Q: What sequence folds into this?
């Protein structure tokens, strides 16, 4: 062809400095873009063959990446469809450039340039992030096509000429600039290919590697080995998410998980995603063993688009609670060229969210139904996840109602309905509200769980990191149900059945008792109330109101609740007027003896609440010894 010079039609002259500057943090993606283009070109050739539109020899599809440190070049070659000179003009000079100018428009509009960085596939022109000069050598599949060459030095000027390629396909040669010479290091390229190209559908070769191969036997019949150079193929062309679930065994899923997360424990179970209407999505999601510190477990899901790795920051693409899952999602329908705020509003992303949520719910429902025992055994791992989903995703909650479990301090498990049926007969109060009781630390709260037990009440164990929020969620969702920690009040008040118990004390005596205990109080923010409880209930009980405590606990977990964390603790000291100790104290001969006994009873209550510590505890022990 005749030599041709031209100017790439674009209204902005300074596109390259901008590309270089603002994509700097992510400049390694040039390789992702160019290797993807090479893969696309090969896929197109395959398609043309299957459509009967290309009758030549397809050959073994292969993308090759070569680094020449001396010449300071990186070459990406493929045996795909190639381009004619006219196609270069159309696809590279015009189309590819329009992509770059679109980027520029977005960049101008964006309030924060970082919003778009790393999410905008610049395609071919991303090569200029690392190269001063880019050359294309290509030969189209079309019969009679001439090899073509295109060179551009990073200005908007290009040169086209006859090319030197003798086989169908394309070489893209990057002349790496000084600032980016790190990309001339082989390990660096290997690392980038491992990240982005590991699961591409066409073999990608990066140099060679030595492999030990069997080489017959020696005279004694022992096997011999030899070292051979073999092509270094960096990818698995058919990762498991592209296969049908029926082709796969558990081992395959587990092996793939190990490949993705070599340092993680085996997952609990997994879900194979596969949908092609109304959007296209495949993937495998794993339920990991969730440790309490679940912040660390996020950003484990990897997002692919047609087997090209895109990101492991899937925030806004999958629902918040599903970020605890591991695995891969592959969808060409997730728009990658837009900012996060667009993403949240995108209808495909919303549908994908709904779909994944439904699949996860299906899987959990199935596990629960098919093998409840195994499900209960896994509950300590999946419970956090299910509860988190129940709180944060209304659609998930609709389903989770049937398989979320409550467990009591006896380690029995119940569904929400089962639990309601179990406790409603005993634990309904005078206003027809059902009250669920729970402990967060049965050992420490034993005095209180014991009081509940005496009444025939059940006590749940809710000690997980999201349980506080989960409790509030249940109260909102379950009808006429209150959930209170066992030490939130005396058991009579927690489930107030309006049972009138006569007092064994006169009004005068009640006053006297109250005064005695008032003087025994050693801590701030405590309020005394003398009540007529059962004679076998505790003589003194110290409790802290459920709602203040819960808010404070939530504030401690973070969130915008700082106000609550500044509130002081308020305690209620309930003195049982009907306990024999009340009468005993009042019948003591001297004021001093009365005060000493009240002090002792009060300290016992502090002890049961876990509040008697330090010098107070020592003093109490010494006094007790003397009394004995
Ligand atoms: P995109 O890949 O998103 O279309 P690019 O800027 O990466 O945008 O590429 C523009 C076009 O150039 C491609 O659509 C394709 O037609 C052509 N092209 C790029 N690389 C190759 C290649 N290796 N072989 C054949 N055609 C290519």
A:
């Amino acid at each position: 062809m005749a030599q041709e010079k031209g100017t790439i039609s674009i209204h902005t002259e300074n596109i390259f400095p901008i590309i270089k500057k603002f994509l700097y943090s992510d400049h390694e993606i040039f390789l992702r873009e160019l290797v993807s283009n090479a893969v696309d070109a090969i896929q197109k050739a395959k398609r043309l063959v299957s459509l009967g539109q290309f009758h030549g020899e397809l050959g073994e599809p292969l993308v090759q990446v070569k680094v020449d440190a001396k010449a300071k070049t990186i070459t990406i070659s493929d045996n795909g469809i190639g381009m004619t000179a006219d196609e270069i003009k159309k696809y590279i000079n015009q189309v590819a450039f329009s992509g770059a100018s679109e980027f520029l428009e977005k960049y101008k509009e964006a309030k924060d340039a970082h919003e778009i960085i790393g999410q905008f596939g610049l395609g071919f022109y991303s090569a200029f992030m690392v190269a001063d000069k880019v050359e294309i050598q290509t030969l189209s599949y079309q019969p009679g096509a001439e090899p073509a060459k295109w060179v551009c030095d990073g200005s908007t000027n290009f040169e086209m000429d006859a090319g030197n390629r003798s086989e169908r396909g394309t070489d893209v040669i990057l002349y790496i600039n000084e600032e980016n010479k790190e990309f001339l290091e082989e390990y660096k390229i290997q690392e980038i290919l491992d990240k982005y190209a590991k699961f591409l559908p066409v073999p990608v070769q990066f140099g060679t590697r030595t492999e030990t191969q069997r080489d017959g036997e020696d005279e004694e019949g022992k096997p011999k080995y030899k070292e051979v150079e073999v092509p270094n193929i960096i990818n698995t062309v058919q990762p498991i998410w592209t296969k049908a679930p029926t082709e796969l065994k558990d081992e395959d899923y587990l092996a793939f998980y190990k490949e993705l997360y070599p340092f993680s424990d085996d997952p609990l179970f997994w879900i194979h995603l596969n949908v092609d209407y109304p959007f296209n999505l495949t993937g495998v999601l794993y339920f990991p063993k969730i440790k309490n510190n679940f912040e660390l477990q996020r950003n484990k899901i990897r997002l692919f688009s047609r087997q090209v790795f895109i990101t492991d920051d899937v925030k806004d693409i999958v629902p918040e609670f599903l970020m605890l899952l591991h695995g891969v999602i592959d969808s060409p329908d997730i728009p990658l060229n837009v900012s996060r705020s667009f993403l949240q509003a995108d209808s495909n992303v919303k549908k994908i969210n709904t779909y994944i949520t439904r699949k996860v719910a299906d899987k959990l429902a199935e596990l629960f139904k098919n093998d409840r025992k195994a499900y209960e055994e896994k509950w300590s791992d999946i419970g956090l996840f299910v509860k988190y989903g129940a709180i944060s995703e209304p659609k998930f909650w609709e389903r989770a109602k049937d398989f979320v479990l409550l467990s009591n301090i006896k380690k029995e498990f119940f569904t929400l309905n089962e639990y309601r049926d179990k406790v409603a007969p005993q634990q309904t109060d005078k206003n027809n509200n059902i009250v669920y009781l729970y402990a967060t630390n049965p050992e420490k709260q034993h005095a209180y769980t014991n009081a509940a037990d005496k009444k025939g009440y059940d006590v749940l164990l809710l000690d997980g990191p999201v349980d506080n929020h989960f409790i509030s969620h249940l109260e909102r969702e379950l009808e006429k149900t209150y959930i209170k920690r066992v030490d939130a009040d005396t058991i009579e008040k927690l489930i107030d059945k309006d049972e009138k118990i006569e007092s064994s004390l006169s009004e005068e005596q009640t006053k006297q008792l109250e005064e005695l205990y008032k003087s025994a109080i050693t801590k701030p923010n405590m309020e005394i109330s003398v009540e007529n409880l059962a004679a076998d209930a505790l003589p003194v009980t110290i409790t802290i109101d459920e709602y203040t405590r819960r808010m404070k606990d939530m504030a401690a977990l973070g969130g915008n609740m700082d106000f609550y964390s500044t509130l002081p603790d308020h305690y209620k000291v309930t003195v049982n007027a009907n306990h024999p100790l009340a009468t005993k104290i009042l019948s003591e001969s001297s004021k001093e003896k009365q005060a000493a006994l009240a002090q002792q009873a009060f300290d016992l209550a502090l002890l049961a609440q876990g509040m008697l510590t330090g010098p107070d505890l020592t003093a109490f022990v010494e006094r007790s010894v003397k009394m004995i």
Q: What stands out?
A: The chain is about 40% helix and 20% strand. The chain has four domains: 14-207, 240-374, 404-494, 507-545+552-627. Residues 551 and 564 are 6 Å apart (CA to CA). The domain at 404-494 is CATH 3.40.50.11260 (Rossmann fold).
